[in-house]
């Protein structure tokens, strides 16, 4: 018996994460076609059940080793944050706006970690005044601000040090350290940094935060990065002369966007955790520390799609174009203009023509007056026409809030959450 041919990229992810019924892609028990008809396009549609599954798979993998804090920057919608809180996650924020969103979603102050290289005075005053679990310091000026606010309020503020690791500890498509960067304090300056931070009476240094890279698909690379971070934690505790309370290993777990990429292997990650746990247990200054991992796209990304309606189809000098009502102003990442050097396609398919085997190379573009507004180049799609739908998968993270939404003053995309056969509109 011959093995079945592998599904094309996009179709494999559709079947992995969602359901297909005849011609229709189904999210949360509702067809994409029905959601588009009820709420209109362009639309981000989020399947709450898929997000829960990805969270649970990661939480089970990390059970007994690390707690999961949802990185709000990936998708700051209140109901998305609330979904992960209900699953047992804490949250990680990078602005007072995200703090407010997390609190509105039901997060308790002690569940919130605050990172980011440019925290403003007013932001710090608000989060410290209302309550915060831990602030991750990224500059000496920030330490001074926190100290002054603590003095004014008559309390001591728990902080962690964001450490920029050495180049050998990096991984991922976007390197967050190992080079000159605005993020955190350099690893090689650790002793001096701790000495200076220790001079603040209202700052209680209780942990570290090491985040070396983003969009990591190599599980072994992430394990190696975490091992290095534990070494930094051990040196920090030694220099402090007391145990650490928190070791934040950052996020960075990636999802497959492009053809040929494989999903992050949780089994490999799980197999590597006992050695890391043994390192912690062997050091009395780390044995009781709370380890934190802060994923965003890994748990939110696969559960979302971006849907646009075709407005016109044209052929120009041998290229077939489908012009849609959506584009990079809603989904900059899918256009390749959010950090890509070489433009590659996100997985794109026709969510109401899933059983159509006949395909033609189609370049999918938006309505903006720039050639940058291209969602997919030579995508193999059915021979679609005006009024039909295209969907960009892996779109639950870094969508509207990572895009130039006001460019050319087009209206925003609607956002819809579907779960258990029910769909409802979300508000920012």
Automatic annotation (TrEMBL):
Q: What cofactors does this protein use?
A: pyridoxal 5'-phosphate
Is the Hydrolase keyword given for this protein?
A: no
Q: Which InterPro entries does the record match to this protein?
A: Ala_racemase/Decarboxylase_C, DAP_deCOOHase_LysA, De-COase2_C, De-COase2_CS, De-COase2_N, Orn/DAP/Arg_de-COase, PLP-binding_barrel
Q: Please indicate if the UniProt record lists Transport as a keyword.
A: no
Q: Where is the Orn/DAP/Arg decarboxylase 2 N-terminal domain?
A: 52-300
Q: Which Gene3D superfamilies match?
A: Alanine racemase, Lyase, Ornithine Decarboxylase, Chain A, domain 1
Write down which residues bear the modification named N6-(pyridoxal phosphate)lysine. 73
**Active site positions, chain numbering:** 369
Give the source's domain of life in one word: Bacteria
The alphabetized list of GO BP terms reads: lysine biosynthetic process via diaminopimelate
* Any one GO molecular function term: diaminopimelate decarboxylase activity
> Which stretches make up the Orn/DAP/Arg decarboxylase 2 C-terminal domain?
302-396
Which keywords does the record carry? Decarboxylase, Lyase, Pyridoxal phosphate
Identify its protein family: Belongs to the Orn/Lys/Arg decarboxylase class-II family.
The protein in question is named Diaminopimelate decarboxylase
Q: Which organism is it from?
A: Devosia crocina
